[in-house]
């Protein structure tokens, strides 16, 4: 097993800025190509039910133009399954989605949604799309992912990112324990949400974590140092933490 920690760059919020004015710029596909050239190992995009940022056309263009793997974040719906099967991205990450939320709040209830998720996971796997489930760092959810046959889980780091001091240390321990439990059961571990240069280190240092997906902070930081510079600096922060 290689120790390279992959960086998936999420470009959703390049599209948020574009859509704020209904203009054709900034182009998320251009950002994806810049990120790949700067060292991103993959590109992540969330096609939301309300198309508030990434659009169907963005997914079509990313599928055609990217030279690094595309990770499609999607809700567990028949519409999104059909889109995934049409474009066949390298990976699909199933996320919970609520229309009124600002961002993906909390992980997927893989345990409670077993019957809804089982056929979806099966169809994606049959199409050779690597399936991951975006879950809280919680043993019950990992056991549900095992029952579903998910090859990958992405652990939600949102709570960790919001906390400070002892509560953050507790949440980091939950993430590390969840990563160890998943890996022990043969599940590849990813993590993401709310990660920045300042808080990425302890997550990157969890040995079982193979990939981080990071977006919002990088798009903001790009205003000051460019998207290329922001991706490179995140890569350096991850590598430094990994030792
Ligand atoms: N991973 C998943 C599954 C997500 O839904 C998101 C947010 O779209 C991210 C990672 C990236 O989070 P952020 O934009 O806060 O870096």
Overall description:
- The protein is of the alpha/beta class.
- It has one domain (about 5-95, about 110-230): Alpha-Beta Barrel (TIM Barrel), CATH 3.20.20.
- Helix content is about 50%, strand content about 15%.
- The protein has 10 helices and 8 strands.
- The protein has helices spanning about 10-20, 30-35, 55-65, 80-85, 115-125, 140-150, 160, 165-185, 200-205, 215-240, and strands spanning about 5-10, 40-45, 70-75, 90-95, 130-135, 150-155, 190, 210-215.
- An 8-stranded parallel β-barrel has the order 1-2-3-4-5-6-7-8, surrounded by 7 helices.
- Strand 2, helix 3 (about 55-65) and strand 3 form a beta-alpha-beta unit.
- Helix 2 (about 30-35) packs parallel to helix 3 (about 55-65).
- It is globular, with a radius of gyration of 17 Å.
- Bound molecules: pyridoxine-5'-phosphate (PXP).
- Pyridoxine-5'-phosphate binds near residues 194, 213 and 217.
- The site of pyridoxine-5'-phosphate (PXP) has 19 residues, from strand 8 and helix 10.
